[in-house]
Specification:
Length: 318
């Protein structure tokens, strides 16, 4: 990130939309890896984030400003980054992969779409950020939308829902922790991501080896893992942070919330997960409700403010 030129406003919008599309496409690629290539979920997550952490770590080593930022991390910040890696990558991403392995991608996506709403509401106590009336209305819209979505039978399973709820809880906790980390330190977001992702990936590797053994990975599976690590993780994180230099928090929130619809459409096209009318209406209400929950606070923030809020501006993604 250091030394990158700030994009134009239109360019930043285009970059953010591209990132959300890449993150949405991850759900399809993960399902292909789990189903077609028979990868185990924890091992799959470990390989994806381990490779991405190595790429980001190499980028930090190549950039003098990022090296200085990394050297300036104290013990207290180091402990927070280790905790962030444990919660956001090891628990959240591991649980997401398990959920995707056990139920339709769109169903898991709707559960995880509650993340920004819960973060906004819980921030009242943990970060002294009072929710507005619009956020309460957004919460109601999300609740109604989720009820409409799950009225129909779209293949939710007990194991998948438990894993998705664990991922949701861990993602909310890591979002609040990430905001706290970024508000109280001048450490580069790239350094924060590289270190926390490296910690989380190491834990995933250990868990994967213990639970699933040494994997056998085909050439096609390595292509999927490589694309997810290089493009959908390392490149997408960097591009997202770059776009936030120009976009307001409100704009980034609006773009974030297109992911619920993007994932459903991609799952329909490539995984034959065909939603019914109530599911479509439910997804729209969830997306609108989450946007309203974010918009009331985001509208008052100047362009670039989302950079300081850290992981809050990053949609839940596998």
């Amino acid at each position: 990130m250091s030394g990158s030129r700030t994009p134009s406003h239109l360019g930043a919008i285009g970059a953010a939309v591209l990132v959300t599309f890449l993150w949405s496409s991850s759900w399809i690629l993960i399902r292909w890896g789990l189903d077609d290539e028979a990868l185990d979920p924890l091992t799959f997550a470990a390989l994806r984030y381990g490779l991405a952490a190595l790429l980001l770590g190499g980028w930090v080593l190549l950039r003098p400003a990022l090296r200085r930022s990394a050297r300036g991390i104290g013990r207290s910040m180091g402990r927070r980054l280790v905790l962030l890696g444990l919660v956001f990558y090891a628990v959240t991403q591991g649980a997401q992969f398990i959920a995707i392995d056990n139920q339709p991608a769109a169903t898991t996506s709707v559960v995880l779409s509650w993340t920004p709403l819960l973060v906004a509401l819980l921030a009242t106590r943990s970060l002294a950020e009072t929710p507005a009336t619009r956020q309460i209305g957004g919460a109601l819209a999300v609740a109604i939308g989720a009820w409409l979505y799950f009225v129909g039978d779209l293949g939710a399973t007990a194991a998948g829902m438990i894993a998705a709820l664990v991922a949701l809880a861990a993602n909310v906790a890591s979002s609040l922790l990430g905001r706290h980390v970024n508000r109280q330190a001048d450490t580069s977001p790239v350094v924060v991501t590289a270190i926390s992702m490296g910690v989380g990936a190491a834990i995933l590797v250990a868990a994967g080896l213990a639970a699933e053994g040494v994997p056998t990975v085909s050439a096609r599976a390595w292509l999927i893992i490589g694309w997810l690590a290089l493009v959908n993780t390392a490149f997408a994180f960097t591009l997202w942070n770059l776009s936030l230099r120009r976009l307001s928090a409100l704009e980034s929130a609006a773009i974030n919330n297109t992911m619920v619809i993007q994932i459903a459409l991609l799952a329909w096209l490539y995984l034959d997960e065909r939603p019914g009318t109530s599911q479509i209406v439910g997804m729209l209400l969830v997306s609108i409700g989450v946007f309203l929950a974010q918009a009331s606070g985001a509208a008052r923030k100047p362009p670039g403010a989302a950079v300081r809020s850290g992981l809050r501006a990053i949609p839940p993604h596998p």
